[in-house]
Amino acid sequence: MMKITTILKRGLFCLIVIGFTIQLPSLGGESFFYKHKTGDKYRILSTVYEEVYLNRRLSHRAEILNRIAVEVKDIRNDVARHEALFQTAERAQGVGGGQSFQWAREYESCFGRNPQGFITIDSKFFMPVVRNVPVFLGQDLNPGDTWSAEGHEMHDFRDSFGITEPYRIPFTAHYTFLGRRQWRGKDYPAFSVSYRIFTEPPPARGTLWPRRIMGASDQIVYWDTELGQAAAYNEVFRMVFELSNGNTVEYRGSAEAEIIESPEMDKERIAREIGDAIRRMGITDTSVRIVDEGISINLENIQFQPDSAELLPVEKVKLDQITTVLQKYGERDILVGGHTALAGGEADRMALSRERAAAVADYLIEKKARPSDRIVVRGYGAEQPLEDNNTEAGRRRNRRVEIIILEN
Question: Burial, 10: exposed, middle or buried (Cβ in 10 Å; 0-12, 13-18, 19+)?
């Protein structure tokens, strides 16, 4: 049986306009353009609900969380240079696999964008997936006005098809200004984006390649005029791949995303506050340190039932106390990372570390430290030891779960 993985990780960014046509009124209306400021930081939270079919039979369902951290590094000649980190995580639906999202993959990206939305990016980057959507001419729009632009999707087919380079699928996007629409109780100027795909591409270097690709996407984008960027979007999509081995793979689903500004994190102050709280509550085998991603709370030598990911009752008491600390910083997302000492095989260590991190994350979700879409789980195995694994004291420190309050 062919192994089918979830490969359609929808994205909100859009890059490199090829060409477009537009129908506009002569006067009045709404003006769309991007506003950039050096040092701006924000994150995009995107959730995808997807069904995957192999030869027209349902293979599996999945929920995908895309967490995208973006920073504007500098602006030259009206072009803002963005650096972005894309983190994808999944959880199976209807399988009883817990509430938390399991970390899947991480991508870095760098691109420039001007106020009209024209963006340049190196072809080596896999993310974002959907590119060239939206773009503007700086002219006013009235409800009902339309325009069109060439765009493309860029997919990561390394795991599924063995295609090592980013795989490009072109399309023409058609836009309609809808007037003002509500997103979560707030009015925004909104426009629709629709495109259809039918292409018979040449063979690609890989174990498999698409002989024919058909697809459709229908989106609504809610624009924050004050911030000068999209506030949110939602999408319904369908993609069908007829493959070189005769199989057909189909992806059906919906997606939504929201952009959230990230205030600057005072790491020194927060680390000090958390450390003081841990000492005041008498939480043992727990330390706090500043890391690149934010603030890490290390639960050292965390105790589980033997050879399992079932927390001992004493650790649940500790996590109850940690929950009260985490709730004070509720505007920040959380990464729960599992670590093991150097014992057993690499695959077993990785699986156990991931399962134990998920057990902690699920308990934090149950206690309302964060909702499930604000926590991502990742297993590291023995890849990041804090101490020497040759001593019992070192192994004790290395058997840990880290709860990282993320900066962005």
Answer: buried
Q: What digits encode the pLDDT tens for the residues 338-349?
A: 998 887 888 888
**Which residue from 269, 102, 239 is spatially nearest to 171, judged by alpha carbons?**
239
pTM reported for the whole predicted model: 0.81
Distance, in Å, from the CA atom of 119 to the CA atom of 113, rounded to the nearest integer, reads 4
pLDDT at 191 over 80: yes
Partners of 54 in the beta sheet?
Answer: 57, 249
C-alpha span between 220 and 204 (Å, rounded): 33
Measured CA to CA, the distance from residue 332 to residue 335 in angstroms comes to 10
Residues counted in the chain: 408
Q: Which helix (H) or strand (E) holds 91?
A: strand 79-92
Q: Which residues contact 342 (CB under 8 A, 6 or more apart)?
A: 349, 382, 385, 389, 395, 398
Evaluate whether residue 198 is within a structural domain: yes
Phi, psi of 13 (to 5 degrees): -75, 160
CATH for 116? 2.30.230
Torsion of CA 384, 388, 394, 398, to 10 degrees: 10
Range of the domain at 46: 20-261
Number of domains, the chain: 2
Q: In this predicted model, what pLDDT tens digit does every residue of 18-66 receive, in sequence order?
A: 333 434 343 458 989 999 899 988 889 899 999 999 999 999 998 998 9
Residues 205, 275, single domain; the answer is no
Judge if the upstream peptide bond of residue 128 is cis by omega within 30 degrees of 0. yes
Per-residue pLDDT of 90-138, as tens digits, reads: 887 644 456 788 888 889 999 999 888 888 899 899 988 888 889 887 7
